[in-house]
Write a sequence for this structure.
């Protein structure tokens, strides 16, 4: 590589700043995952246990680190339960959307023919629908619950993956090393796995954390509206919904789940940003 | 040269349709490649030579016409039936930087063709990879590296080794020397020639540089605007018939040529602009020798001076059209 | 009259700015190795000097150093560069920029990436004329059209408002020559100006460059000896940052003294001279 190209490409600050986003986001997210895996068990209280003697206990009190809600239920346990619910729903939705979107994107990139054109039109159409409205309508038809929500969110948001994969795959097919691989006449599977997918990893790694964050917010919003998780279940959205009546008297009932949503979304976004700077 | 050709291109046309217009990248091209020879395809960028090369390689489907390898239709035979046959045609690309997978090691890149061919067990493949490296004069220390760690010349050698791993009967080299330094280009050119002689591979050598073509080719075909305008044995470059070939030869610089042909440049610059009309010779708008009859498209016809010499120009044929 | 004089020039990485590591380089903190070392040459008005070398030989860096275009992270470590008798090192950054803008014209290798895609060809010329020659916008526009006509671009009055992507490769290179020549510079530097072009267009561009000389000096950088042979009065051969041979073009090409030059000439001959024996075999 010529000295000029090298010198122009590197600039002193960039390496350090991409590192901090990656590290902070990565550590936060890892911590959150550990909490989710450990589960509400570590809280010491059951999430659904109603204890009318200890209603509205503020945070940092003995026995209840984050306080209790209007029915005396421990907030730590409820937050952790909600974490599992939100994390799992968002993760499944993202996985579903990425698998469908990637598959369709690869198909669309390859065929210059009718199939490719059809997929592209369908993607454009699907993307033009307001995601949220569509999700609400589908929940009204299908009902709520973990599987329903995860499936609906996944099935409604695949276009973003499809678009990205299609564009990347199309440019990859024009690259000479892919043409050289095609000339070896290998099986299509081998061609895609060994030559196309590695090229997609960079962009997908960046999109996935951001999409995950979007799914988190979408799920919380659905729960907040009362059409997400079943009523009474300990999810962040439900907790936010229930906290509305006590905003002035027990503000922590709103602040605690809100902080939870914000921190998870921020860590996902930081990870995505860090990856984008690293890989782009 | 008698006998059936190894590779036959019959009346191939490639048309691309973009949103604004229709582009004819190649028009009624016919070629023959015989075993053991080097056919050079020469032309400027946009002449269609790369498109034609890709049709022959099988990666672009022609709009009309066909490519026949050992009498089998390359594009229309079924995937499974034609597979082994298609593997016998391999290609080396112009840009060594993008013709090697950046995420794989060199060892992996060279083993892959052997895996696809079901060459044998791990030891057999390893041995064959070392043989291939020897053929292209590379050291085995290169196997663990990735493409960006290699020089341009080394990358091109790896690309050649990868092509050879399929034991091809036809090797298409698409401007293999154009992205390299003069010194590196010379060594790769010699390598290609030696390999061709040792392994008996027929070669299709695509270039925009007439000088290197002279050195390495047995037969030449000159392309302009998607058509073959002149073809014949390499010696036609000593007695070019078509004005475009003459222009190319005159523009070629050599280390001994001390002066630029300024008269030629003036002639070109003085040429009045003439838009292409349908049915006219496609070279007419750039031809300094154009005459009245050039508003009719000439056919590729034999030129009197040399056996096997064809040219697409009214001025080359004594008989009126 | 000597337009540019370079004495014992050394270029290397600035010691205070660590560059991001690339995988092929060791990560030690050794003192900066100069990339170009001990380079000396001079070019007179009306003369063409060819700097020949392979990629990585430092020829482009040398040109950038003279034009004041070294990127951050690289700098002149030693030696002197003088343009029309004025030493570059003694000037302030603004003076150096003004000097480079008005007295030096640079022609880059890849015209597509050297032009700003969202600006018209004419806008560059007009801006340059207004800044360095203090012309009014109207006068600058007229001069711009004349400049485009001088490089034989078709329909200059329309081309002046065209965007780079609307021109062909050869036309863009002509436009770049027009931009470089616009302020009648004392020195023209052409960095591999014809590498991306076809043979016929290459001939036209080289002829144009040769015709641009008048009272300017031209430094032509190339990896191809053949280009140098037909254009240059003197040749300087670079290898790994050092000058290995320098002299009259005819002499260097006919009787090269250094082994590296001899290798280059041998390589060119392998590629071009003589016809392959295979050519004759077909006749029999």
């Amino acid at each position: 590589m010529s000295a000029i190209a090298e010198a122009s490409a590197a600039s002193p600050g960039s390496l350090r700043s991409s590192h901090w986003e990656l590290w902070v986001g990565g550590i936060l997210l890892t911590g959150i995952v550990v909490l989710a895996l450990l589960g509400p068990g570590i809280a010491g209280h059951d999430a659904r246990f109603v204890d009318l003697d200890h209603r509205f206990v503020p945070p940092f009190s003995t026995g209840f680190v984050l306080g209790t809600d209007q029915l005396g239920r421990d907030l730590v346990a409820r937050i952790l339960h909600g974490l599992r619910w939100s994390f799992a729903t968002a993760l499944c939705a993202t996985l579903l959307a990425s698998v469908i979107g990637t598959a369709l994107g690869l198909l669309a990139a390859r065929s210059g023919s009718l199939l490719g054109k059809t997929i592209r039109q369908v993607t454009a159409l699907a993307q033009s629908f307001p995601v949220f409205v569509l999700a609400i309508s589908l929940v009204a038809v299908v009902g709520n619950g973990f599987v329903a929500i995860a499936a609906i969110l996944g099935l409604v948001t695949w276009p973003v993956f499809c678009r990205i994969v299609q564009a990347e795959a199309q440019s990859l097919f024009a690259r000479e090393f892919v043409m050289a691989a095609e000339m070896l006449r290998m099986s299509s599977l081998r061609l895609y796995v060994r030559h196309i997918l590695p090229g997609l990893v960079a962009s997908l790694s960046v999109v996935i954390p951001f999409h995950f964050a979007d799914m988190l917010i979408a799920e919380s919003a659905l729960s907040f509206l009362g059409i997400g998780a079943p009523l009474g279940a300990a999810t962040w959205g439900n907790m936010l919904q229930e906290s509305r009546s006590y905003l002035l008297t027990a503000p922590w009932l709103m602040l605690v789940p809100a902080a939870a949503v914000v921190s998870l979304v921020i860590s996902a976004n930081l990870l995505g940003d860090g990856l984008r700077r690293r890989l782009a | 040269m008698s006998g059936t050709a190894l590779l036959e291109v019959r009346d191939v046309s490639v048309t691309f349709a973009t949103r604004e217009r229709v582009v004819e990248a190649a028009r009624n091209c016919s070629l023959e490649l015989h075993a053991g020879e080097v056919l050079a395809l020469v032309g400027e960028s946009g002449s269609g030579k790369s498109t034609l090369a890709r049709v022959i390689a099988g990666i672009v489907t022609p709009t009309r016409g066909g490519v026949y390898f050992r009498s089998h239709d390359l594009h229309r035979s079924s995937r499974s039936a034609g597979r082994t046959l298609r593997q016998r045609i391999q290609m080396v690309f112009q840009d060594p930087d993008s013709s090697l997978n950046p995420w794989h090691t060199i060892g992996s890149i060279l083993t892959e063709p052997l895996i696809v061919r079901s060459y044998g067990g791990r030891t057999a493949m390893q041995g064959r990879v070392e043989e291939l490296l020897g053929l292209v004069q590379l050291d085995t220390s290169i196997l663990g590296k990735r493409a960006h760690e290699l020089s341009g010349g080394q990358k091109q050698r790896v690309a050649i080794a990868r092509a050879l791993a399929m034991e091809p009967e036809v090797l298409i080299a698409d401007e293999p020397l154009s992205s390299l330094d003069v010194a590196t280009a010379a060594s790769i050119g010699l390598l290609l020639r030696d390999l061709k002689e040792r392994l008996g591979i027929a070669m299709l050598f695509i270039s925009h540089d007439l000088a290197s073509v002279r050195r390495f080719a047995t037969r030449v075909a000159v392309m302009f605007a998607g058509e073959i305008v002149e073809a014949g044995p390499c010696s036609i470059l000593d007695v070019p018939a078509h004005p475009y070939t003459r222009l190319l030869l005159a523009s070629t610089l050599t280390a001994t040529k001390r002066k630029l042909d300024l008269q030629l440049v003036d002639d070109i610059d003085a040429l009045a602009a003439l838009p292409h009309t349908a049915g006219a010779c496609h070279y007419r708008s750039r031809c300094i020798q154009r005459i009245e009859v050039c508003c009719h498209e000439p056919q590729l016809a034999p030129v009197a001076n040399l056996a096997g010499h064809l040219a697409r120009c009214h001025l080359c044929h004594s008989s009126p059209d | 009259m000597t337009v540019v004089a370079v004495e014992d020039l050394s270029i290397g990485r600035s010691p205070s700015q660590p560059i991001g590591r690339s995988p092929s380089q060791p990560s030690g903190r050794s003192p900066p190795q100069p990339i170009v070392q001990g380079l000396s040459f001079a070019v007179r008005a009306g003369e063409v000097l060819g700097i020949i070398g392979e990629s990585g030989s430092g020829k482009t860096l040398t040109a950038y150093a003279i034009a004041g275009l070294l990127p951050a992270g690289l700098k002149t470590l030693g030696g002197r560069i003088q343009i029309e008798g004025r030493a570059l090192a003694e000037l302030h950054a603004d003076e150096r920029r003004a000097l480079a803008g008005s007295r030096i014209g640079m022609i880059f290798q890849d015209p597509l990436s050297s032009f700003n895609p969202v600006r018209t060809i004419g806008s560059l010329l007009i801006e340059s004329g207004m800044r360095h020659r203090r012309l009014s916008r109207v006068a600058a526009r007229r001069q711009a059209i004349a400049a485009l006509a001088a490089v034989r671009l078709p329909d200059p009055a329309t081309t002046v408002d065209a965007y780079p992507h609307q021109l062909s490769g050869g036309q863009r290179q002509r436009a770049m020559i027009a931009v470089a020549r616009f302020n009648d510079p004392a020195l023209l530097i052409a960095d591999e100006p014809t590498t991306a072009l076809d043979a016929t267009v290459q001939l036209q561009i080289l002829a144009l460059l040769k015709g641009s000389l008048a009272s300017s000096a031209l430094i032509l950088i190339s990896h191809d000896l053949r280009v140098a042979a037909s254009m240059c009065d003197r040749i300087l051969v670079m290898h790994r940052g050092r000058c290995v041979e320098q002299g009259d073009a005819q002499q260097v090409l006919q009787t090269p003294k250094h082994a590296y030059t001899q290798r280059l000439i041998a390589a060119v001959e392998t590629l071009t001279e003589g016809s392959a024996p295979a050519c004759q075999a077909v006749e029999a």
Notes: The two ends of chain B are 29 Å apart (CA to CA). Residues 230 and 244 of chain B are 9 Å apart (CA to CA).
